[in-house]
Amino acid sequence: MTSRIIYTHDYLQQLPQAFRQHLLKNGLNKEYGKDWEDILNKEYSETWRVENLVLSHWKILCRYAHTPGEALAEFLVGLREGRLLGTRCSGCGRVLIPPRLFCEWCLREVSDWVEHSGEAFVSTYSLAYIGTDPGVRLAEPNIVAVLWFKDTVKETPSSKTVLHAAGLMHMIRECRPEDVRIGMRVKPVWRPVEQRRGSILDISHFKPAGE
Amino acid sequence: MTEVYVAGVGEIPCKPSYPQDFREMLFKAFKNCLEDSGIDVSEIDAVVASGLDFFEGVSITDSYTPDQVGGRLKFNTLVTNDSLNAFIHGYMLIKTGWFKNVLVTAYAKASNILNYGEIVLNTWDPHLIRPLLIHHFSMAALDAQAFLSRRRGEPRDLSIVAAKNIRNAQRNSAAAYGADTDIEKIESDEFVSEPLRRSHVARLCDYASVVLLSSDNRSAKAVVKGVGFAHGSHSSDLSERVFGKFAWVRPAVSQALPSSSRRVVEFVEVSEPFASTELMVLDELGVYDGDVLKGVRGGDFMFDGALPINPSGGCIGMGYPLNAAGLQRVVQAVKLLRMGRWRGCLVASVDGEVVDGGSIVVLSAG
């Protein structure tokens, strides 16, 4: 009994060229059996010897299919419909956006759904001159921000320390970088219905709501 | 009650890259530790390794640790966390009474990671945060901005921290990035994500270190006086995160050190992937009498100040060795204690660049 493994396109792309060509030429790119392992080892050793490699580059493909869970699935469906959904704990009264079906404060299940207007204010922000690659500088900074939704903040009565706030991290646009500040009121800008797909990016960005 | 001593430390200096692989790097650090401790390899009972497979690019990376550190056919365990947490696990093993000598190991081969930003991106919630493609420097900047806003600080305070650490690193032969810089030079750096400038971010490095913990005080270089660990609010979508404040610090320091004993802390070594991290940890530690930002501006945290912070140069001056940062700080703390200038110190390390969680260890001279 031999194990059979299907090569994916991505997997083939990261193999040394000579090895990849060999697989394709011999029709072995779709599957291989145990007998093939000897050939595979030989090909690798030859590659190392021929090219005299000091470093071996190997790209790890990180691919997952994440289950969003019941609460977040509902949230994402809501986004597709242009609705911002959350849950409210009947114990402590907190509004949870993004929603959860449990409250870790009260350790009870949460089943009350609420819909929020999306009106929020800037809790913290940064003018980001980098994207995913810090070596590439953006011509104009992205305004990255944490937005707390209106009427969801819980503070200690005395010190006004924030204990909880329902909020999202997102981008602020339609705003000059020098104008953004903590406490600024913002509102969501939704993508057109036909472009929504149940993603956080169904909210295109947030923009100033005016004082 | 069993006391726990640091019997020896070993490291190889931080460098942007090493031609050796991680096994070779660890072996050198191990040999240095063994020589420092004077203990024979046969006396080592267990190995606690710190490692994160995503950083190593190797699954079950702990399986590849024992051979080069004398751990073959012995008790081995991996802590997939910052290495100060691995240190605490080693401490606890000795406290059980079952182990006498426990080796704690950590290394970083950051130069082998070709897409570090993308690797860290996998930390975040795939539905809410990752699609935004925000670099973790910007995540840290959100913390920094919130901290400075809350504490009425200035971005320049971050430059004071960075300049201090880069200058301190000049004294440390294990540091990769020490230089004779000043605040104005740092202030002229470009922003990577406001308020963080390029020099406010610790550069990655290759590094390895090994620490031998023992219940035997024969070759004690330092005494472990207390340990603590805590997490703040944790959710990968950051919805529960209070930016600008490290909730983990106070409970962790309370575990490690009674508030009445905080005067034993004569200097602090704290892993600071960002200059703001150092200030945020210090702000919650409760070991400095006064306003932390005034202390920064007044020079109290300089090498010769009232409470030196990162006299070794920290991660900004030495290089940031990923999850090895905590053990890197322990090794520097022990080296500094052995200078004879200070009698006690506190070591703190965050669980990752932008994680609201971390470990604290209190050491005194052996």
From TrEMBL, chain A:
Residues 113-191 form the ChsH2 C-terminal OB-fold domain. Coiled coil: none annotated. InterPro entries: ChsH2_C, ChsH2_Znr, NA-bd_OB-fold, Thioester_dehydratase-like. Residues 78-108 form the ChsH2 rubredoxin-like zinc ribbon domain. PANTHER family: BLR3430 PROTEIN (PTHR34075), DUF35 DOMAIN-CONTAINING PROTEIN (PTHR34075:SF4). This is Zn-ribbon domain-containing OB-fold protein.
TrEMBL record, chain B:
Keywords: Isoprene biosynthesis. GO terms for biological process: isoprenoid biosynthetic process. Residues 262-338 form the Thiolase C-terminal domain. InterPro entries: Thiolase (IPR002155), Thiolase-like (IPR016039), Thiolase_C_2 (IPR055140). GO terms for molecular function: acyltransferase activity, transferring groups other than amino-acyl groups. It holds the Pfam family Thiolase_C_1. PANTHER family: ACETYL-COA C-ACETYLTRANSFERASE (PTHR42870), ACETYL-COA C-ACYLTRANSFERASE (PTHR42870:SF6). This is Thiolase C-terminal domain-containing protein.
